Amino acid sequence: MAQTCQEYRLEYGTIYEQRQVNAMRIEYEDAYEERKVTSFRPVWETEIRQNRRTVLKPVYETAEQEERYFVDRPQWEERIEDRSYDVRREVLETAEREERYIVNRPMLETQEREEPYVVRRPITETIEREETYTVMEPVTTYRPVQVDQGGFAEQQVYRPGPVRNRLRWQSGQCLVDPVTGQSAYQRAGFFWVPEQRPGVVETQRVWIPNVVTTQVPQTTLMPRTEVRKVPVQVCRYVDEQMVRKVPVQVCRMVQHEEVRRVPFTVRKEVIEHVDNKVPVRFCRMVREEVVRKVPITTVRYMQEEQVEDVPVRVCRQEQIEETVRVPVRVEKRVPVTYTYQVPRTVVYRVPIDPCGNPISVVTPIVPGSAMPTVPPAYGSGATGGEPTPARPKGKKKSSGNNEDDADQKPEIEPNENVPEATNDMGSSAKTPGRGNVSGSRPRVVRSYYDRET
Question: Which of 28, 37, 116, 382 could disulfide-link 439, Cβ–Cβ 3.0 to 4.6 Å?
Fold first, then answer.
């Protein structure tokens, strides 16, 4: 009997190793500081001040003056006027006339009419509907990152000297006025001429950039949409038209002519003349001259000085010293421990059966290290949330509280660059068919879509 040879298939996964880093966290506390404050309080006092002013006092003088004016006096006279008028009145007379009119009388009749109506009958059918769902696949991409690898270099820079005005002898010459643009002759003599000093050469240290682009791998989960067919029962309705007979009562109107006698009243107008003579009084104005004496008052003003005592409120500032408490924020550094994860790609050997289906046992192949056959489930060993206090050197980590270790010096200096704390344990993808990676062992992310056969 021939011996069966076991066949394997290689798969790739990502392992996250946990590392701890000690750092310092800055905290602030509120404190109070006593300070002396000098303030001024206003004190009001009342003083009496004399207010001198000059007042104009009126003096009245009365005299008489004759005034002549005209007055219109009424004079009444009586006469008779004829105010006769006509009176119009109406006389009522009664008569009768014949009036013909048409009356509509209702008559009821019963008839039958056809009424169509629609009936909806249900029909159930089974159809297939396409349903889409999303599957997350891990995809490794490379992100270009630009890094400046330049350096400093010495560079010569020339700086021109300052410009000074010097008194120089110039011979006679023709110059152009820059304002008017006209040419004029300038006599020989001493003039102020701008002169530039020699420049200075300086050496400066300049940074020369050298930008280099590098590729950084990163693994992300990309959604992929798939379609599947699902049987669905659909109920549709079919309209069917039917006719039924309905009895209806119809009312029609029949016209009849009738005659009636209507009394009516006629108005006739009669004119009568009335004599009316009325005595009337009218007024006539007669002008007369009248003389009267009118008193006239003359006012003249005399200056008089008055003295008045006025109370005035005066404000005086009084100095007061007080002691107040001022809030102050105090900075304090607390050592803490951050946990971050480092990704690493490993190769797994997966045994398969003769049909090509994978067997549940997986043997990892990691150069230079021994890995368990099956990745263990992810437990509660991962740290998340707030960072824990740092552990002092030379002491083992205890299972109790770390409040006594906060006053010890951390393992690294505060100015040293420390990676940021990450918490990717909860957001990482789970391996299909396996448990989650434990917090005390490396976490493996396996893909069932990128296999090698």
Answer: 382
